[in-house]
Amino acid sequence: MGLMATAVHFGAGNIGRGFVAPFLRQSGYEVVFADVSDELIGALQTQPSYRVHEVGEGGRDLVVDGYRAIDSREHPELVAEEIAKADIVTTAVGARILQFVAPLIVAGLAKRAADAAPLVVIACENAIGGTDLLAASVRELGGAMDRAIWANCAIDRIVPEQHGGLDVTLEAFWEWAVDATPFGGATPELAGVHWVDDLEPYIERKLFTVNTSHAATAYLGYARGIETIAEALEVPEIAAEVRAVLAETSALLVAKHGFTPEEQSGYVETTLTRITNPELPDTCVRVGRAPLRKLGRHERFIDPAAQLAELGEPCWNLLTAVGAALRFDPDDDPEAVELQAELASGADPGELASSICGIEKGHPLHDDLAEVFRLRLGS
Ligand SMILES: NC(=O)c1ccc[n+]([C@@H]2O[C@H](COP(=O)([O-])OP(=O)(O)OC[C@H]3O[C@@H](n4cnc5c(N)ncnc54)[C@H](O)[C@@H]3O)[C@@H](O)[C@H]2O)c1
Ligand SMILES: O=P(O)(O)OC[C@@H](O)[C@@H](O)[C@H](O)[C@H](O)CO
């Protein structure tokens, strides 16, 4: 470590500024933000601090300072130089963006002194194996993999859309579970982190409870022209449908990971309270964003549905939520536009189940999923 430990953080958006950066600062790191938004980078370069306002029980107001910022589109070479000297790299850019961050990490690792301590890399995305995805892209580009330690994580904190400026309002609740196993017993000091030896139960419980119910509410609400998640869950039919979806994923989580039914039901109730927090209005459009990613094979609907189908268990309510997702069409969401174009392309329902959701013919979910696409195309 140099005089002051340095963290390079990709993505100065809501989770980056509101969650990751404050914990990195608390852990004693200087934070170097890298982002492609010139507006955000300009603001971070001119404003020496911003505020984080936590809403809910135990919520505090923090001031975040001690950062620098680099426009990674304009100055990738400067980001690589920072990575060469850094102790840790984190990301919060979106799982599908990790492939574009990878070349900068490759360049940074190449410039790293041979005797430098390995760089710690943690991708803080909503994805199973987010850091593995980043590592795969770095490996594909010939990156010096042995100069870094790659750790997956599960990150949970609701940060709704913000309305200009750098300040962030978010919920007081958070959970950040990071895989300890790549560190061989020598995990770094990282405030806010819960180090775990088996990450799968944490990431699956989080993604298949919080994100599945969140997304189901968003798509069912959007289909009825409702703006916020809290308003959507006030509609009795939507609330009942979301609870039915949660009953399916809860059955899987209890059977697979050994959570007791009481534990899981407590987790479900906490989740429903969190996503309807009246002090933190969140929109169906934000929560439903990037529907093609959300309909992916290892994501919040299809992964649990596929696992349930493989066990011969029902997943009709997850499929109902998928049906609602297929109607998500905000003009300013590029993935929603792409989704609607794919649905209009003339491909048959079975092909769409495989091209959009990664479920091939012969999989026990395939025919029911194809039926969901058929119903959408027929309407
Ligand atoms: N907001 C939440 O409640 C929440 C909670 C947990 C996890 N997450 C996850 O965190 C990640 C970020 O979500 P968010 O809500 O902060 O989104 P966001 O849109 O607010 O922030 C993403 C940031 O990444 C930047 N970016 C895009 N491409 C980039 C690139 N190539 N290099 C560097 N920066 C780039 C964008 O300009 C933006 O500032 C996502 O994976 C999301 O699923 C979000
Ligand atoms: O970030 P996404 O697009 O994967 O999902 C939208 C929301 O469900 C998500 O951001 C939650 O607010 C968050 O995952 C809570 O921890």
From TrEMBL:
Q: Give the top-rank taxon of the lineage listed in the UniProt record for this protein.
A: Bacteria
Q: Mind telling me what this protein is named?
A: Mannitol-1-phosphate 5-dehydrogenase
- One Pfam annotation, family name? Mannitol_dh
Return the similarity comment. Belongs to the mannitol dehydrogenase family.
Reactions accelerated catalytically: D-mannitol 1-phosphate + NAD(+) = beta-D-fructose 6-phosphate + NADH + H(+)
Q: What is the lineage of its organism?
A: Bacteria, Bacillati, Actinomycetota, Actinomycetes, Micrococcales
Q: What is its EC number?
A: 1.1.1.17
> InterPro entries from the xrefs?
6-PGluconate_DH-like_C_sf (IPR008927), 6PGD_dom2 (IPR013328), Mannitol_1_phos_5_DH (IPR023028), Mannitol_DH_C (IPR013118), Mannitol_DH_N (IPR013131), NAD(P)-bd_dom_sf (IPR036291)
Q: Where is the Mannitol dehydrogenase N-terminal domain?
A: 6-191
Name the species this protein comes from: Homoserinibacter gongjuensis
Where in the numbering of this chain does the Mannitol dehydrogenase C-terminal domain appear?
198-340
UniProt keyword list: NAD, Oxidoreductase
Q: Where does NAD(+) bind?
A: A7, V8, H9, F10, G11, A12, G13, N14, I15, G16, R17, G18
Enzyme class, spelled out:
oxidoreductase
Q: Does the keyword Protein biosynthesis apply?
A: no
